[in-house]
Amino acid sequence: MKDNFDNNQEKSVKRKHHRTEVFFDVIYKVISPIKGVGLSRNFSQGGLCLLLDNELPPGTIIELKYRLPHEESRLIETTVEVIWQKKTDTGYITGVKYA
Questions:
Q1: Does the CA dihedral 6-8-9-13 come out positive or negative?
Q2: How many domains does the chain have?
């Protein structure tokens, strides 16, 4: 998936946690029959910003599986809640927080 994220520096002033820009593939599973793939944009102690291939309403709980780029084959599995989503030409930019 191609990245099409906004780089809005003004938003970083309002953030509770510092964002670290890092790109890695993620697999997610909505606690329903929907499954998809995506790409991370950034992450923090509070959550992640993802580019997903499906529209998911705020409040949706999803299971994520991913490997960080600098971690040797360690699979991370976590549950997150969709907070917001914005449609783009390449998918849905999605803000999630750890559940």
A1: negative
A2: 1
Question: What is the C-alpha separation between 60 and 77, in angstroms, rounded?
Answer: 17
- 25-75, pLDDT tens digit by residue? 998 877 766 788 899 999 899 999 999 999 999 999 999 998 888 767 688
Q: Which two tokens stand for residue 70?
A: 């600098």
Structural domain harbouring 33? 18-98
Which parts of the chain are beta strand (E)?
A: 20-21, 25-30, 35-43, 47-52, 61-66, 76-88, 91-98
User: What's the pTM?
Assistant: 0.69
| CATH value at residue 52 | 2.40.10.220
Tokens linked to 18: 């510092």
